[in-house]
Amino acid sequence: MRQEGTERPFTSPLLDEHRKGTFACAGCALPLFTSNAKFDSGTGWPSFWQPLPNAVAYKRDTSLFMERTEEHCRRCGGHLGHVFDDGPRPTGKRHCINGLSLTFKPA
Ligand SMILES: [Zn+2]
Predict the structure, then answer these.
(1) Please, what is the Cα angle at 107 between 56 and 93, to 5 degrees?
(2) Separation of 55 CA from ligand 1 center, angstroms?
(3) Mind listing the pLDDT tens digit for each residue in 23-79?
């Protein structure tokens, strides 16, 4: 998961994870998202409209001739995915996360 690649869409078992619980970093087990903030973005990657406080860090990514915001685990620096501005309310953010970067713990 240290490689900043992205898994193929619709391959993550977490896509269909609809139980209540916590999504934690696959690298260091830091809790990153809760099931409350998960939504179906239709993109094929697990998507959230809000991370937990102090869970993630951001970096500008200008690769692929696009400007995107990369998201990393704040504790171990593991690459998680990208953030976009077309998410649902209340935040308007779409955190598009690699399923491989997360582990799910049911509540
Ligand atoms: Zn981590």
Answers:
(1) 35
(2) 9
(3) 999 999 999 999 999 999 999 999 999 999 999 999 998 877 778 899 999 999 999
